[in-house]
C-alpha cells in the first residue's frame, strides 16, 4: 500500500491525459526557473554597469573623451553607455553640419529615446512568460485534478463495494496535478512581480540619466555657440 501511494508510482499509474498535464507543468516550471535565473543575472549586470558608467561620467572629463573610451562594438557596451553614445554621436553630427542649437539637442534626445526604447524591450523580454505561467498553471493543474477524480469515480462506480483503498490512489494522483500547478505558478508570479519592478526602476534610471545628459548638451551647445559668436565679434 505504501509503495502504491508513492509519488512516482502515482505519476506512472496516472491516466495518459493527467500525465500529459503533469509533463506540461513540469516543463513550464523548468522554463520559468531558467528564465528567473537568467533575468536575475541580466538585471544585476545592468545595474552594476550603470553604476560603473555613472561613476566615470560624473567624475568629470571631456564628453568627447568619454565617448572615445567607450568605442568598440555595441554588444560590449552597457545600456547606459549605448544611450550616451547614441546621443553624443547624433549631437556631434548635427553640430558639424552647423545646425541650430535646438536642432542639435532635439536630434540627440530623439536618438537616445530610440536607444532607451530598445533597452527597455531587451530588459522586459520574456518576463511576460512568467506572468503567463503564474496565471495559467493553476488552471492546468486543476484540469488534471478534475479529470483524474472523474476517472476515479467512474472506476468506483464499476465496483460493488467501495473502500478508501480503492479511491485513495486515484484521488492522490489527481491532486499531484494541482500541486504541480501551484509549484509552477508561485515562483513564476514572485519572479514576475520582482523583475517587472526592477525593470521599471532600471528604465527610470536610464530616463533620468538621459534627461540630465540632455541638460548638459544644452549647456555645452549654448556655451560653444556663445564662444563662437564672441570670436566672430572680435
From TrEMBL:
Where does the record say this protein resides? Answer: Cell inner membrane; Cell membrane
Matching InterPro entries, A to Z?
ExbB/TolQ_transport (IPR050790), MotA_ExbB_proton_chnl (IPR002898), Tol-Pal_TolQ (IPR014163)
Q: How does it sit in the membrane?
A: Multi-pass membrane protein
Q: Which GO terms describe its cellular component?
A: plasma membrane
Superkingdom to which the source organism belongs: Bacteria
State the family named in the UniProt similarity comment for this chain.
Answer: Belongs to the ExbB/TolQ family.
Query: What name is this protein filed under?
Result: Tol-Pal system protein TolQ
Recorded hits in PANTHER family, A to Z, give: PROTEIN TOLQ, TOL-PAL SYSTEM PROTEIN TOLQ
Q: Name one GO biological process term.
A: protein import
Q: What does this protein do?
A: Part of the Tol-Pal system, which plays a role in outer membrane invagination during cell division and is important for maintaining outer membrane integrity.
Q: Which organism is it from?
A: Natronocella acetinitrilica
Q: What assembly does the database describe for this protein?
A: The Tol-Pal system is composed of five core proteins: the inner membrane proteins TolA, TolQ and TolR, the periplasmic protein TolB and the outer membrane protein Pal. They form a network linking the inner and outer membranes and the peptidoglycan layer.
Q: Which UniProt keywords apply?
A: Cell cycle, Cell division, Cell inner membrane, Cell membrane, Membrane, Transmembrane, Transmembrane helix
TM stretches of this protein: 16-37, 127-150, 170-192
The chain positions of domain MotA/TolQ/ExbB proton channel read: 77-206
User: Source taxonomy lineage?
Assistant: Bacteria, Pseudomonadati, Pseudomonadota, Gammaproteobacteria, Chromatiales
